[in-house]
Write a structure and sequence with these properties.
The protein has 81 residues and is mostly helical. It has five helices and no strands.
Length: 81
């Protein structure tokens, strides 16, 4: 259920400026939940949601860049092992 919620949220934010502005204050929480969920479920679907959110908040994402890159790198190593 969390995967579908993340996908839906990513698409809504990507396509709707009003939704994007409403979710801006919760961006930290949104990204933390996506990163946490990536450990527990299908990473490919979560990457789609993450991509949409990063694209929508391209200016606001900088403070999260290090954590996101670290998480994506660790996930990649886990997948190829």
């Amino acid at each position: 259920m969390r995967v579908f919620a993340a996908l839906a949220l990513g698409r809504i934010i990507d396509e709707n400026e009003y939704a994007k502005s409403l979710c801006r204050d919760g961006l930290t929480n949104i990204l933390e939940n996506i990163i946490k969920t990536m450990d527990e479920v299908d990473i490919e679907k979560m990457l789609v949601a993450l991509k949409l959110i990063v694209r929508a908040y391209d200016q606001e994402i900088c403070p999260f860049a290090t954590a996101l890159i670290g998480k994506l790198s660790a996930s990649y190593v886990k997948l190829i092992s």
